[in-house]
Amino acid sequence: MTPEELEGTWLPLRGELGGAQAPELVVTRTELRLTRTRYRVIFAGETADQGNYTLADVGGVQTIQLTSTHEANDGRIMPSLIQMRGDILRICFGSDGLLPTAFASPVGSTNYLVTYRRKVQD
C-alpha cells in the first residue's frame, strides 16, 4: 500500500474501543482525510486531530504511525495496524502508544479498531 492509494476521505462504517462498539453518533459524524503525508480527523465539521503519518512494513504487516500536531495532542504518537482492500480501510489504532498485535480491540484494551469506506467524490 502506498500513500497515493490512501489519499482521500474515509468515512467510518463501524468502530470498537476496548471491546465495546463506538456510539453511532461518533461513527456517523467523523471522517478521516489522508493526503500523501498528512492526516486530519474531522468530527461534526471541526478538526479533532491532525498531523503527519508514515507507512511501514513490520514483518509483513502494514503499519501506519500517526504523529499529532494538533493542540493538546501535539507530539502524541499512535502506532497502528492498517489494511486496505479496495475501498475498505481498517485501522487498529494503538491509543496507548503501543503497536497493536492484531486487528482487535479486546475488553480492557485501549485499541481503537475502525473500518472505513472511501467517500465517493462528487
What is the strand and helix layout of this fold?
Blueprint: H1 3-6, E1 8-17, E2 20-21, H2 24-28, E3 30-34, E4 38-43, E5 46-58, E6 61-68, E7 77-85, E8 88-94, E9 111-118
Antiparallel strand pairs: 1-2, 1-3, 1-9, 3-4, 4-5, 5-6, 6-7, 7-8, 8-9
Describe the structure.
- A hairpin with an 8-residue loop joins strand 6 (61-68) and strand 7.
- The chain has an eight-stranded antiparallel beta barrel.
- The chain starts with a helix and ends with a strand.
- It is globular and about 35 Å long.
- With 122 residues, it is mainly β.
- 7% of the residues lie in helices and 56% in strands.
Count of helical regions: 2
CA(first)-CA(last) distance = 25 Å
> Largest sheet at a glance?
8 strands, antiparallel, barrel
Please state the overall shape, judged from the principal axes of the Cα atoms. Answer: globular
Q: What order do the helices and strands follow?
A: HEEHEEEEEEE
| Fraction of helical residues | under 10%
Alpha carbon gyration radius: 13 Å
